[in-house]
Design brief:
Elements: H1 15-32, H2 34-53, H3 58-69, H4 80-83, H5 91-97, H6 100-110, H7 115-123, H8 144-158, H9 170-180, H10 187-199, H11 214-221
Helix pairs in contact: 1-2, 2-3, 2-8, 3-7, 6-7, 7-8, 9-10
Length: 230
């Protein structure tokens, strides 16, 4: 399989090995569904920025971004007629969709990926109020990385045109995130994200994010240190 970058002699457990595996898995998403692949790249960038805003060290923020690159990996095992269905899903179809974080986490576990990546991918659809999936975790029981990834994921979904809905504007999306604090989202994480939106008028990415390898992607889009509203 063609990869986004080439690494030789990357021992399991090393950062280089992690990047290589994530790159190859991201490429598999690209080959299956280019729209999902681009969504994952935008989510990775948003998650990286959010983590830095919350004071994470650069290396940890970029590891979370790697989780973002493959957070929807499990959807590549969902049939198109379910994944792309414009109408309301049946109960069985919804159950199928809700298995995708588990599928992705199992694949990542098989490749010996770091716990931060496994936890963020497995739990990025959990909700602060316990109404999410797949484990119905609530509050602080949800891994922190997953709480960040959840906000980044939802922001990209609601600000991107889909066949069944028009994209929200950034102010509308900001209000949706703000209203979701304490329900869908960790209030602290949601607050940090809205601070980022207020500070960066150019925060929202274009639909297409270039094909740079992860390290180049982070350098091109890293927000650096914490930001305050302008």
């Amino acid at each position: 399989m063609e990869t986004l970058f080439t690494v030789t002699d990357a021992a399991p457990g090393t950062r280089r090995h992690t990047q290589r595996v994530i790159g190859e898995l991201a490429q598999s998403i690209r080959e299956r569904d280019f729209i999902t692949y681009q969504h994952c790249r935008r989510v990775a960038i948003y998650a990286n920025r959010l983590a830095r805003q919350m004071g994470w060290q650069r290396a940890a923020a970029r590891e979370l971004a790697l989780a973002g690159l493959v957070h929807d990996l499990g959807k590549t095992w969902v049939r198109n007629e379910v994944l792309l269905k414009p109408a309301r899903l049946s109960e069985s179809e919804r159950e199928t969709i809700e298995k995708h974080p588990v599928t992705a986490a199992q694949l990542l576990w098989a490749f010996d990926m770091p716990d931060l990546i496994l936890d963020a991918v497995l739990s990025h659809h959990e909700r602060w109020d316990g109404a999410g999936y797949p484990q119905r975790l609530a509050g602080m029981a949800i891994p922190l990385g997953a709480r960040l990834l959840s906000v980044a994921d939802v922001f990209d979904v609601i600000t991107t045109d889909r066949p069944y809905k028009a994209a929200m504007s950034v102010p509308e999306a900001r209000e949706r995130i703000h209203e979701g604090a304490g329900g869908a989202f960790d209030p602290t994480v949601a607050g940090a994200f809205t601070t980022l939106l207020d500070a960066r008028r150019d925060f929202r990415l274009t639909a297409y994010v270039g094909a740079e390898a992860p390290d180049e992607l982070w350098r091109a889009h890293d927000s650096g240190d914490q930001l305050s509203p302008a």
